[in-house]
C-alpha cells in the first residue's frame, strides 16, 4: 500500500497554516502560511469604515476560507504527493472565536445589509468587550449556586461564547434576532468543507467555551432566564446542534471544496478542535503530569488528569476535552508574544531599530541577545504581565500591565527582559495552582512559535518554574495534532488511525535538546517570584483597584 497522508490546518490569530503530514512517522512534508488579508479588525470595519469600540477584536470569515483555498493546494503541490493518498483533514482554531450565521449557515456579515453592523462579524477570542456580561454571568451563577462554576475555576470569561452571545443580544438585538445559530469558527469552517446542512459542534469548544458538560449538557434554561428572559431557550435554539467527540468524522469533503483545495472529494474531515488542545497529542502527550504550553501571541496551558479537581482560575476542566479517557485541564495567559510585540512596536527607541537593521537582525533578536547578558535580578525591574488582562488565575480582563523599578539608566533590553520574566511568573502562578491542588505537573512541554524564536525566554521559564522543558520537534504542532485527528477521522481501515493515542505514539516527537533549570538562577527567581506574587495580589485581588479606576476615568474621558 502506498504511503498515506493527512493535512492539518491551524488557524492562529493573524494567519492560518496548512501542513501535509506523512502518517507513518509524522514527518511534515510541506507547510504553507496564509496571512489573513484582514488580520485582526480592531479599529474599523472593512469597507464601511464603521469605528469599533475599545476592547473589540473581530475577523473576516472569508479569510478562513482563503487559507483553505491557498495553503492547502500549496502544500499538495509543494509535496508532490498524489491527492489520492491524502485520506483526511483536521483543523484547529483560536477559541472562543465565534460568529452569527443565518439558516443557510452563511455568516451574517456576508449579507451586504448587515455588513456595517459590528455585531454581524466574527468575534475573535481576544474580543474583550463582553466583560460586563461576563461579570453578571458570574454574579448570577454564584448567587444561584450553579454547579458548573467550579469547573471553570470559579469564573466564566468574557472571551467565551455565552458572554459574547449576550453582548450581541444587549447591543444589537436585531442581529441576535436574525441569527439562526451562533457557531465557533472552527465548527463553521468544518461545515463549509463538508457542506453539511446539520452543523456539528465539537465537544472541546462546547466544553471549554460554552459551558457544555458531557453528562449534564448546557446549564439549565432557568439559569439562562435568570440572566435575561430573552436567553431562556438559547441552548435549544441558537446554540443547538449535536456535540460530538474530538476525532469524530464530521463528514466528507464536498466536490466543490475539493476542487478549490486541490484534494479528492469524499476524504474524511474531522470535527473542529482548538489550537492549544490539538497541540497536546501533537507534542506526544497522552498521559497526566505533563503540562503542555502552546506559546505564541498568548499561552495556553494544557494538562491531563484522572480526577476532577477545583483549581482557581483555570479556564476549564472537560472530560475527554483533549484526549479521550482523561479530564483535560486548561489555563492560560491572554498575552505573551503580544506583549513583546507591543514593546518592539511601541516602546523601542529608534537607535535599537537602527542597530538591529544594521546588524541584519530583527528587533526581538537584538533585544534577546542584549538581554541575555544580564543575570536574573540584575535589571532591578519587575513587571506584571497583564497587557491583555489576566486569564489565569485571576480571570479579569480589566487588569493592565505594570513595570516597576525604572531609573534613568534603564535600557530597552532590560525592559524586554523584565517582560519575558513577567510572562514566566504568570506561567509559574498557573503551574503552582494546578500542582498545589492535586493536578500534578512534573514536566513542561513547549510548542508554538516562541520556543523556536527565543532561547532566553525558554531558559527563563525553566528557571522560574524550576522544571525541565521539552520542546516539540514540530514547527507546527497544533497543525500536526489537527492532522492526527484527520487521520483518526479517516480510521485505520483507510490508512489512518483508530485512536489519537495510536496516532500520537507514531507521529509525535520532541527535540533532544531540553531546557533545564540552572540552580543559581532558580534561587534568584524564587525571590523575584515572591515579589511578583505580592504585586499580583495587591493589584489583582482587590486591595488596590487602581487599574479599574484608571479604566473608568479613561472611559469617562472618551465619552
Ligand atoms: N524573537 C522573538 N522573541 C519573542 N517573541 C517573538 C519573537 N519573534 C516574534 N515574537 C512574538 O511571537 C508571537 C507570534 O507567535 P506565533 O506562535 O508565531 O503566532 P500565533 O500565536 O499567532 O500562532 C508574536 O506575538 C510576536 O510578537
Ligand atoms: O483561548 C484559546 C484556546 O483555548 C485561544 O485559541 C488562544 O489563546 C489563541 O492563541 P494563539 O493566538 O496564541 O494561537
From TrEMBL:
SUPFAM superfamilies: Actin-like ATPase domain (SSF53067)
Pathway(s) this gene product operates in, as recorded in its UniProt entry: Carbohydrate degradation; L-arabinose degradation via L-ribulose; D-xylulose 5-phosphate from L-arabinose (bacterial route): step 2/3
Keyword Ribosomal protein: no
Catalytic activity line of the entry: L-ribulose + ATP = L-ribulose 5-phosphate + ADP + H(+); D-ribulose + ATP = D-ribulose 5-phosphate + ADP + H(+)
GO function terms (MF aspect): ribulokinase activity
EC annotation from Swiss-Prot or TrEMBL: 2.7.1.16
Protein name per UniProt: Ribulokinase
Species annotation: Paenibacillus violae
GN (gene name): araB
Amino acid at each position: 500500500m502506498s504511503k498515506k497522508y493527512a493535512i492539518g490546518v491551524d488557524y492562529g490569530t493573524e494567519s492560518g497554516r496548512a501542513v501535509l503530514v506523512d502518517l507513518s512517522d509524522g514527518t511534515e512534508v510541506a507547510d504553507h502560511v496564509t496571512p489573513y488579508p484582514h488580520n485582526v479588525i480592531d479599529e474599523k470595519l472593512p469597507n464601511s469604515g464603521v469605528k469599533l469600540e475599545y476592547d473589540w477584536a473581530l475577523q473576516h470569515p472569508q479569510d478562513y476560507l482563503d487559507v483553505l483555498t491557498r495553503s492547502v493546494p500549496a502544500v499538495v503541490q509543494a509535496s508532490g504527493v498524489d491527492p489520492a493518498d491524502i485520506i483526511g483533514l483536521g483543523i484547529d482554531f483560536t477559541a472562543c472565536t465565534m460568529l452569527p450565521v443565518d439558516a443557510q449557515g452563511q455568516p451574517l456579515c456576508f449579507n451586504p445589509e448587515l455588513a456595517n453592523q459590528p455585531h454581524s462579524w466574527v468575534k475573535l477570542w481576544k474580543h474583550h468587550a463582553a466583560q460586563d456580561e461576563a461579570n453578571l454571568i458570574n454574579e448570577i451563577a454564584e448567587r444561584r449556586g450553579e454547579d458548573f462554576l467550579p469547573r471553570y475555576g470559579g469564573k466564566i470569561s468574557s472571551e467565551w461564547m455565552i458572554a459574547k452571545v449576550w453582548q450581541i443580544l444587549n447591543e444589537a438585538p436585531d442581529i441576535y434576532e436574525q441569527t439562526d445559530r451562533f457557531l465557533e469558527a472552527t465548527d463553521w469552517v468544518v461545515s463549509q468543507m463538508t457542506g453539511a446542512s446539520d452543523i456539528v459542534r465539537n465537544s472541546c469548544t462546547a466544553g471549554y467555551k460554552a459551558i457544555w458538560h458531557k453528562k449534564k449538557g448546557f446549564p439549565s434554561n432557568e439559569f439562562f432566564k435568570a440572566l435575561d428572559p430573552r436567553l431562556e431557550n438559547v441552548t435549544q435554539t441558537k446554540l443547538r446542534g449535536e456535540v460530538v467527540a474530538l476525532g469524530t468524522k464530521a463528514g466528507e469533503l464536498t466536490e466543490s471544496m475539493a476542487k478549490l483545495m486541490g484534494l479528492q472529494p469524499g476524504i474524511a474531515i474531522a470535527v473542529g478542535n482548538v489550537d492549544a488542545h490539538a497541540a497536546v497529542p501533537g507534542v506526544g502527550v497522552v498521559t497526566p503530569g505533563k503540562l503542555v504550553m502552546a506559546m505564541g501571541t498568548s499561552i495556553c496551558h494544557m494538562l491531563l488528569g484522572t480526577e476532577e479537581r477545583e483549581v482557581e482560575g483555570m479556564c476549564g476542566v472537560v472530560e475527554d476535552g483533549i484526549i479521550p479517557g482523561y479530564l483535560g485541564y486548561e489555563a492560560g495567559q491572554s498575552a505573551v508574544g503580544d506583549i513583546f510585540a507591543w514593546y518592539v512596536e511601541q516602546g523601542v527607541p529608534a537607535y535599537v531599530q537602527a542597530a538591529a537593521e544594521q546588524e541584519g537582525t530583527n528587533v526581538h533578536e537584538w533585544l534577546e541577545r542584549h538581554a541575555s547578558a544580564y543575570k536574573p535580578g540584575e535589571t532591578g525591574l519587575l513587571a506584571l504581565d497583564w497587557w491583555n488582562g489576566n486569564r489565569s488565575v485571576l480571570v479579569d480582563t480589566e487588569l493592565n500591565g505594570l513595570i516597576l523599578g525604572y531609573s534613568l539608566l534603564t535600557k530597552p533590553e532590560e525592559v524586554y527582559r523584565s517582560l519575558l520574566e513577567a510572562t514566566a511568573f504568570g506561567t509559574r502562578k498557573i503551574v503552582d495552582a494546578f500542582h498545589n491542588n492535586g493536578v500534578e505537573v512534573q514536566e513542561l512541554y513547549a510548542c508554538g512559535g516562541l520556543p523556536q524564536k527565543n532561547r532566553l525566554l525558554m531558559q527563563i521559564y525553566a528557571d522560574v518554574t524550576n522544571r525541565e522543558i521539552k520542546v516539540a520537534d514540530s514547527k507546527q504542532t497544533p497543525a500536526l495534532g489537527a492532522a492526527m485527528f484527520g487521520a483518526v477521522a479517516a480510521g485505520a481501515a483507510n490508512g489512518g488511525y483508530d485512536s489519537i493515542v495510536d496516532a500520537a505514539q507514531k507521529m509525535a516527537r520532541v527535540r533532544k535538546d531540553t531546557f533545564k533549570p540552572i540552580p543559581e538562577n532558580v534561587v534568584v527567581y524564587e525571590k523575584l517570584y515572591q515579589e511578583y506574587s505580592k504585586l499580583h495580589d495587591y493589584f489583582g485581588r482587590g486591595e488596590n483597584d487602581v487599574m479599574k479606576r484608571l479604566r473608568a476615568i479613561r472611559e469617562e474621558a472618551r465619552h
